[in-house]
């Protein structure tokens, strides 16, 4: 097909072209040139490039080895016109959005607590337990719990291989079922009134729809994946991808751990539904555990300033790390996440399509409870201290989960102003003595940061 290129004119006679072409070029024939085909071939490429530009990380394959910083955003060379004046539809809007996000990250959710908490406490139930949080086994530093072998020896807890698996086996062992609708909050209190929380979920059908889409996205992204040894978590018995800020003992520095499998975790972290779930987690963390949230927010702010980075697992998250546990039927074996921060909470969101009365329960070994854990619901509890597992769901049902947490080693390194204890000892012996002295009181101080029923204004007979 032949095409003619001619200067176009408006109805008033003005030419579109900024110049007047000479007469010899007034009509040019382009034989065998299919412009429509060329345009259609380039449209998909443009869409991919735009998607990549909006993502905080490139969606190409990410190496599974640790990186000192998250993968950089794709660089874009500005056009000559953008150098003169920022586009009002791009640059200004982007700048305003960044400012709003920075303000939200700085302010957090704590400012709304006085308004929200009375409403939450109206529907909150209380379940008293016979445990004393202060008696949970913590290592000498106070940052992490004792390791699994020592913990099992002290508590008499069986190994994952020897522990019950089915609901009936747990019931036969003396456990009881804690009925929970997954929406209304329930406070689990120790003998001194210190609490951790079955948070629930927003009473919003839109949130449940977002949770379902998030589960479907995890299933879609993991379909056909061949899991490597690093992603097959033998300690927890699930296929999992972790991303976030970790501390390297070998290199004595913080690094961003990028999950493998062609950047699946990065795609999930930037999904709008995942962000909505993570935002709810952050708000619940701020409302129910204000001192822990304030400390965690200050910690991650200090960390990012030191590393000159703005990258978090989720925009509003105060946790440094996230784990995506992939189905089709996630069911962790009995374990403790003993390397997590001992005095902090771990946030677990259950996803999937299953009957929470027949499976998917959260086993809290030390409390002798099987907690019904419906899809879309959130539980905040100290996973470093309490041995936990899941009851398997029934055949044909599906379950996955999202876990947010902070390693104790990261907390220690940030608290020590990004120095190891050996470095402090060599540079400032007096400060080193103070660091050692703080170990003896750290765990007791951490327990005092946990809210009590009295502080929340909840009084029980």
Q: What portion of the residues fall into strands of 2 or more residues?
A: 15-25%
Number of domains: 2
Secondary-structure-derived class? alpha+beta
> How many distinct beta strands?
14
H/E series: HHHHEHHEEEHEEEHHHEEEEEEEHHHH
Highest-level CATH class of the largest domain:
Alpha Beta
Roughly what is the average pLDDT, rounded to an integer?
82
**Largest beta sheet, briefly?**
10 strands, mixed
CATH fold category name of the largest domain: Double-stranded beta-helix
- Outline the low-pLDDT stretches: 1-5, 17-28, 38-65, 72-83
Task: Summarize the amount of helix as a percent range.
Answer: 25-40%
Principal-axis shape: globular
What is the CATH architecture assignment of the largest domain? Answer: 4-Layer Sandwich
N→C terminal distance = 88 Å
* Tally of helical runs: 14
Describe the 3D structure.
Residues 61-73 have a biased composition (Pro residues). This protein is of the alpha+beta class and 461 residues long. It has two domains: 1-54, no CATH class; 112-415, 4-Layer Sandwich (Double-stranded beta-helix), CATH 3.60.130. The chain is 36% helix and 15% strand. The chain has 14 helices and 14 strands. The protein has helices at residues 35-54, 80-84, 91-107, 113-123, 148-155, 167-172, 205-222, 264-269, 272-288, 290-307, 408-415, 421-427, 429-449, 453-456, and strands at 125-128, 176-178, 186-189, 195-200, 232-233, 238-248, 253-257, 321-326, 346-353, 362-364, 369-371, 378-381, 388-390, 398-405. Strands 1, 3, 4, 5, 6, 7, 8, 9, 12 and 14 form a ten-stranded mixed sheet that branches. Strand 5 (232-233) and strand 6 (238-248) form a beta hairpin. The longest helix is centred in the C-terminal third of the chain and has 21 residues, at 429-449. The chain is globular and about 90 Å long. The chain starts with 34 loop residues before the first helix and ends in a 5-residue tail after the last helix. Residues 1-5, 17-28, 38-65 and 72-83 have low confidence and may be disordered.
């Amino acid at each position: 097909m032949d095409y003619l290129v001619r200067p176009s004119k408006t109805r008033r006679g003005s030419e579109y072209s900024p110049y007047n072409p000479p007469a010899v070029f007034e009509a040019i024939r382009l034989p065998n040139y299919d412009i429509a085909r060329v345009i259609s071939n380039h449209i998909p490429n443009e869409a991919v490039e735009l998607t990549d530009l909006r993502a905080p990380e490139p969606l190409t394959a990410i190496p599974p080895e640790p990186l000192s910083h998250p993968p950089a955003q794709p660089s874009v060379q500005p056009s000559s016109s953008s150098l003169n004046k920022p586009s009002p539809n791009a640059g200004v809007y982007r700048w305003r959005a960044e400012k709003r996000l920075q303000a939200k990250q700085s302010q957090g959710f704590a400012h709304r607590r006085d308004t929200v908490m009375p409403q939450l406490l109206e529907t909150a139930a209380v379940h008293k337990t016979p445990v004393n949080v202060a008696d949970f086994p913590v290592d000498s530093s106070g940052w992490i719990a004792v390791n699994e072998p020592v913990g099992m020896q002290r508590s008499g807890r069986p190994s994952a291989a020897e522990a019950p698996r089915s609901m009936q086996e747990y019931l036969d062992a003396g456990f009881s079922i804690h009925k929970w609708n997954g929406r209304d909050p329930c406070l689990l209190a120790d003998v001194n009134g210190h609490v951790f929380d079955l948070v629930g979920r927003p009473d919003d059908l839109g949130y449940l729809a977002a949770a379902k889409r998030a589960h479907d996205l995890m299933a879609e992204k993991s379909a056909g994946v061949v899991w490597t040894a690093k992603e097959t978590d033998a300690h927890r018995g699930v296929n999992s991808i972790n991303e976030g800020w970790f501390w390297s003992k070998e290199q004595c520095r913080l690094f961003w751990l990028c999950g493998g499998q062609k950047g699946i975790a990065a795609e999930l972290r930037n999904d709008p539904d995942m962000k909505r779930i993570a935002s709810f987690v952050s708000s619940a963390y701020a409302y129910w555990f204000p001192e822990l949230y304030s400390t965690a927010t200050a910690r991650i702010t200090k960390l990012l300033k030191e590393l000159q980075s703005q990258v978090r697992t989720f925009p509003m998250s105060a946790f440094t790390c996230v784990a995506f546990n992939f189905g089709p039927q996630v069911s962790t074996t009995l374990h403790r996440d003993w390397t997590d921060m001992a005095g902090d909470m771990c946030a677990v969101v259950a996803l999937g399509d299953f009957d929470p009365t027949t499976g998917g329960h959260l086993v809290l070994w030390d409390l002798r409870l099987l907690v019904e854990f419906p899809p879309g619901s959130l539980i905040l509890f100290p996973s470093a201290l309490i041995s936990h597992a899941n009851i398997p769901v029934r055949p044909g049902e599906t379950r996955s989960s999202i876990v947010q947490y902070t390693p104790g080693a990261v907390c220690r390194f940030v608290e020590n102003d990004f120095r190891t204890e050996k470095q402090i000892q060599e540079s400032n012996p007096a400060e080193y003595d103070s660091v050692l002295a703080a170990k003896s009181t750290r765990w007791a101080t951490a327990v005092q940061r946990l809210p009590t029923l009295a502080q929340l204004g909840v009084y029980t007979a």
